[in-house]
Design brief:
globular, mainly alpha, 3% strand, two-stranded parallel sheet
């Protein structure tokens, strides 16, 4: 195929095809001017706005539906929420595998959307039809209310987990599809991608804000049928918008199972455990550069880290794929393994995030929610997480990055791990504040004689600091986490890398369920009342939050160790260096002016 050449500024000629191996759905190379960039991303971002509205329209208020409509207790309802949310965030591992090994990101995403929409539709029916839910109960003691039947629970939770399977294929692929629209070998597009994840999070949280305010109000005050029907409609709209953008997308060709590739390297290294590794990396096995260029892939040079795995690339005469791996395949495996300690660090803050839609919301039900004649839904305080996050992302991108560039000469302002570290510090502060606030709430419950239950006559807005600071923490930790796992993953394993981010949230939610059940059980033994009861006015969530503060501090110490030893992967192109040079040139005139003025 003849390559089209177009004139650039300055009279030079430049190849207008992308250099990162992206193609159209038919497998043909794509013109940079015709596909990708922010034009393609606009459809993807709009999809995510509506999809976030759908997801958070269900998850934000789920704990109250389980309590009020299905008549479950505090621990059981909170654990059902975190177990479901944990599954939501764990299934992307399967979705990433299917995308990278079999169908590609686009088709995996599209098929998963159909499953997702099916689950949402059945869920809407389950909250709408009287035969699919137990009769209404107004007794404040839910133990006296009729429990949901096996069939009712099967339909409700069956729909929830069908939805979870669908999100397994959408979550790891949609942000990756968005990032794929920028060519790493083009300095201009590389620079655009540096801001992509910030504005990606900024845009999708508009959908979250709508869910945490409008939808939870409708669910609490109008009805659950409309409150769940609107998110279902929103998901249908989002899928339609995504399909409209199909002619503009760039696609990465599936490059085989990342799990199989990694297993081959590990098995090969173990089988050649006694074989010496040559001092010269050039003696290790590697494919010809032309082979990578032909397939639109990247060749990676050997690195000294995790040197044991280099044994897999030692030539011993065997060409068996489970005995001999290329240097690039070995380095890809190293990159995925290097990220595991960082992944472990994110489990604890993900557990803190799980409290937003469980215990934080349950606390809100015990406080005064009235503003005149308007009654605030407890779950709507989650909207302040979103607002704080939106504001923080803008301030970070517009001011913090620019200021820090002058000091670090880093195009990102600070490294991704440093940004995550700031978020970890915020999580320690959040849990200290949450514990102190809960002490105050319990003190008022005693003063007003409401230890046995009832609404405490103090505004729900005393919980506002912990919600707002959670949003600020997200702007640092969650955005950096998503970008880190995408950026540090090998080019052929981007979906798997992105699934690390979702896996973090999944394990964090399962860890939340484990900790809540364990602490509730241990503190109620030997005749003790326990820290977490159905009646929060007689509970000790202040102790529980203080325990979380200590857990976050220990996790931060572990983070400092990982930060010291982590080695960032090499860039696949020199575009980051080009950006750094541009920043240096921008600083030079300012320095000259400053020097002349002295």
């Amino acid at each position: 195929m003849a390559m089209k050449l177009e004139k650039e500024e300055g009279g030079g000629l430049q190849n207008k095809y992308t250099k990162d191996g992206t193609v159209d759905l038919k497998g043909n190379p794509v013109l940079r001017s015709k596909r990708g960039g922010w034009r393609a991303c606009s459809f993807i971002v709009v999809y995510e706005v509506f999809e976030r509205m759908a997801y958070y329209g269900i998850s934000s208020n789920l704990v109250l539906y389980l309590t009020k409509k299905l008549h479950e207790g505090t621990v059981k309802s909170a654990n059902n929420v975190t177990n479901w949310v944990g599954t939501i965030w764990m299934t992307p591992i399967l979705g990433a595998y299917v995308a990278d090994a079999l169908l590609g990101r686009y088709w995996t995403f599209l098929i998963s959307c159909i499953i997702y929409l099916s689950g949402m539709s059945v869920l809407t029916l389950s909250v709408s039809l009287p035969s699919l839910k137990p009769p209404t109960c107004r007794d404040p003691n839910i133990e006296n209310c009729q429990r949901a039947s096996t069939l009712q629970l099967a339909v409700f939770f069956g729909a929830l987990y069908t939805l979870a399977i669908g999100t397994g294929g959408t979550k790891p692929n949609i942000s990756t599809i968005g990032a794929d629209q920028f060519d790493d070998f083009d300095p201009k597009e590389k620079k655009q991608k540096l801001s992509f994840f910030n504005w990606w999070m900024f845009s999708i949280f508009f959908g979250t804000l709508f869910a945490n305010t409008v939808l939870v109000y409708i669910q609490d005050n109008v009805g659950w049928s409309l409150g769940y029907g609107l998110p279902t409609l929103g998901l249908l709209i989002s899928i339609t918008v995504f399909l409209l953008g199909t002619p503009f997308y760039r696609h990465k060709v599936p490059s085989g199972s990342p799990f199989t590739k990694m297993a081959m390297v590990i098995v090969g290294a173990i089988r050649k455990m006694k074989v010496a590794v040559p001092n010269d990396p050039k003696e290790l096995y590697e494919l010809d550069l032309d082979e990578y260029v032909r397939k639109g892939k990247f060749r990676i040079d050997s690195t000294p880290g995790l040197s044991f795995l280099n044994k897999a690339a030692v030539k011993t005469g065997s060409t068996d794929a489970w005995m001999l791996s290329s240097i690039t395949q070995v380095e890809e495996t190293k990159q995925m393994l290097r990220m595991i300690p960082v992944l472990i660090i994110t489990f604890v803050p993900s557990t803190m995030i799980a409290q937003i839609n469980t215990l934080f919301v349950k606390q809100g039900t015990t406080l005064d929610r009235n503003i005149g004649s308007f009654k605030i839904p407890p779950a709507s305080l989650s909207g302040f997480v979103t607002i704080a996050m939106l504001i923080s992302v803008v301030l970070y991108d517009r001011f913090f990055v620019r200021i820090m560039r002058k000091w670090t000469n880093n195009p990102r302002g600070v490294t991704l791990l440093q940004r995550m570290g700031i978020g970890l510090i915020f999580h320690i502060i959040i849990m200290i504040i949450a514990s102190i606030t809960e002490m105050y709430r319990l003190k008022l419950a005693k003063e007003f004689g409401l230890v046995n239950g009832g609404q405490i006559p103090v505004t729900i807005f005393i919980l506002l600091p912990q919600f707002v600071l959670m949003g600020v923490a997200d702007a640092f930790l969650e955005v950096a986490k998503l970008e880190f796992f995408y950026d540090q993953a090998p080019e052929s394993m981007k979906s798997l890398g992105t699934s690390y981010s979702t896996t973090s949230l999944g394990i964090g939610n399962f860890l939340s369920s484990f900790l809540l059940s364990t602490v509730s059980d241990l503190t109620s033994r030997n005749g003790h009342q326990g820290w977490i009861l159905n009646n929060l006015n007689a509970s000790h969530l202040d102790y529980y939050y203080a325990f979380f503060a200590i857990l976050n501090f220990i996790n931060f110490i572990f983070f400092l160790v990982v930060l010291k030893f982590y080695v960032y992967k090499a860039e696949v192109s020199d575009s980051m260096e080009v950006l750094a040079e541009e920043l240096q040139k921008m600083k030079a005139p300012n320095q000259e002016v400053s020097n002349n003025g002295l």
